[in-house]
Structure prediction request, 410 residues.
Amino acid sequence: MAAEIHSRPQSSRPVLLNKIEGHQDAVNAAVLIPKEDGVITVGEDRTIRVWLKRDSGQYWPSIYHTVSSPCSSVSYHHDSRRIFIGQDNGAIVEFLISEDFNKMNHVKTYPAHQGRVCGLLFSLESEWVVSCSHDKSLSWMCTQTGAMLGRHTLNAWASCLQFDHETRHAFVGDYSGQITLLKLDRQTYSTITTLKGHEGSIGALWWDPVQRLLFSGAADHSIIMWDIGGRKGRTLLLQGHHDKVQAVRYLQLTRQLVSCSADGAITVWNMDTRREEAPQWLDSDSCQRCEQPFFWNLKQMWDTKTLGLRQHHCRKCGQAVCGKCSSKRSSFPLMGFEFQVRMCDSCHSSIKDEDRTALATFHEGKHNISFMDMDPSRGLMTTCGSDRVVKIWDMTQVVGCSIATGFSPR
Ligand SMILES: [Zn+2]
Ligand SMILES: [Zn+2]
Prediction:
């Protein structure tokens, strides 16, 4: 993979435009202000700051506000200048930012949760603030009256949230690796389904209301695309990270997915190409190629006087195979395997060289990324995390129509 990164031309990389420093602790969110050279940051150091780009080219705070508890999440609505901050103590505070970004006035405090608010979204259409928390609940509150409208209790700490403003569906990711899909109403709700597919806590969710696609990134290093609009239960697995995936963003116009992981990797996926579902792993008591028994198959081991083998799975066909029958490795981007994975011998020999052409590009953010925001219309991206630095990137060379139509082969 390293060789591939270095062989890419300089121009197709994210270009670092600016760095914002000065936070005393982790920056939990850095949101781009639409149509302004501005960024809003919220941090573990209990600050909310609005940064504007000055004539010097550097970003300086025009608002610096300290609250009583670490700021864990944010939802900013640009047209109304309303901003909602989720806090570590479970409260959500609403402020109104002045037109010139020099003042911020407190509007309301919502006693939404008993624990850290890790995801929240303001919906102007419903006048709701929907939020999820480490107190294992999802709540939605009326922003006109401040009243709690409803609450749903989950089995695990919630970690992230997406909301469809039109249909009022909420998607809640949690630490057990599940995503709960709910339909919210005023004071009632129904649980639609639970999406199970990850083997680690959900780090990020992104809902695309147009194509009705849900993307989830998780601590198991993988991303799943849940094709809700397709109504056929299609899921695509995307494996192109070596660390926890903590931010995902789908660009509907160019059909690209941008994902970031804790190790600073930024991966840009071409979703405008044929992709196949990875197979379910099959169960067997013996290798489905050489028929030797696996170690728990005591009867066959005794009958044939053979030693039991460990079970592995071919990522391409899903068959249960022994180590000897699956000694080779290959990438297979068509199924989302951008890195080398285990293949049985027959699958390995069936893969042609062109099948190994990457369907994603790989970039280095060079800092811990726990949050990412993008403004696709300007090609801007912000990343931030525990290293207290906010980076502002020019992504125009990476995300764009030329890239979306297909990546050049290696
Ligand atoms: Zn075998
Ligand atoms: Zn196979």
Observations:
- Confidence is low (pLDDT under 50) at residues 1-10, 401-410.
- The pocket of zinc ion (ligand 1) is lined by residues 287, 289-290, 292, 321-322, 324-325 (CB under 6 Å).
- Residues 2-277+357-404 form a domain with the Methylamine Dehydrogenase; Chain H fold (CATH 2.130.10.10).
- The CA atoms of residues 384 and 390 lie 5 Å apart.
